[in-house]
Amino acid sequence: MGVVSGEMLVDGRIRDSSFQRKTGYVTQQDLHLPTATVREALSFSALLRQPQKYSREEKLAYVDTVIDLLGMQEYAEAVIGELGEGLNVEQRKRLTIGVELVARPQLLLFLDEPTSGLDSQTSWSVCDLMEKLTKSGQAILCTIHQPSASLFQRFDRLLLLARGGRTVYFGDIGKNSHVLLDYFSRNGAPDLQPGSNPAEHMLEVIGAAPNAHTDIDWPTVWRESPEYQAVQKELKRLSEHTDEKDSRTATEDNDQSAYAEFAAGFRVQIHEVTKRVFQQYWRSPSYILSKSILTSGSVSTAPSTASAVVTL
Known about the structure:
Distance between the termini: 56 Å
Mean pLDDT: 86
CATH superfamily of one domain: P-loop containing nucleotide triphosphate hydrolases
Shape: elongated
Number of strands: 7
CATH architecture of one domain: 3-Layer(aba) Sandwich
Low-confidence stretches: none
C-alpha cells in the first residue's frame, strides 16, 4: 500500500486547530430537524458556530443576510418537514448550504457532490447559487462525479485525481474546456469527439472510466509539465509571503475562540439545544400523546406493591 507523507498547507501556512472553525462542510445528504423552520435551523447554526466576537444580535442579523443571499425569503418561516411533505429537494439543498454559510467560514466552503441525485434543472439552480456565492467573495471547493457537459462549464478550475489520489491535472478549465483539452492533447491524449462530454472524456483518457485503459502515466506527465512548475512557483510565492500576510491579518485572527473546542459558551449551548428539543416535542403531538398513554397505562395497571414500584 505504501505510506503517504507531506505537509498540509493553507495559503502557504501550516494548518492549525482553527482550520475547522474557518471552513464549512456541506454534506451530500440534506439532514435537518423536520420540526424546525428554515430560520430556526439557520439561527441554531449561527448561534453555536459563529465566533464569540459577534453579539447575539449580529449573529441573528447575519441569518437574514444569508436568507436573502440564498433566495429563501418566501419560505424562511416554513417548517422543513420530511422529504416529500415539506421543503422540496432544491430548497433542502439550499438550506444545507445556508447552515454552513451562517457559520461565517473565512477560508473555504466545501461541498460534497452538491448535484448528486438532483435533476438537471435543480442541479443548474444549485450551480447558480454557488456562482452567486463566489461572486460575493466566498471561496468554494466541491467534489463532483461525471457532471454533464453544460454543468462542467460552470466551474472555473479543476483538480483531477487518478487512482490512489495522485494528481493528473490542476488548473483552469477554460471556455468550452479548451485549456483542459489542450493540455491533454499536447501530451498524447486523443481529441474530444464532437458532442462528447469533456468530463467523461477525461476519465476515459486517464483510464478511470469503466473498461478504459491508458498506457500513459498521467501523474508523471503532470509532474514534468510546465503547468506543474507554475503551480509550484505559486506555492513558493505564497510561502514566502506568509509572514507578511500573518502580520497584516493578526488583528483579524486574534479571536481565541477559533482555537477552542466549541465556538459558543457552555450556557449558550445548553440554552439553544434545550430550546430546540422542547420545540421538537411541542411540535410532535403524536409523540406526546403516545408517551402519555404509555405512562398512564403502565401506572394504572401496575399492582400497589414495593416490587412493582421498583419495576416502574
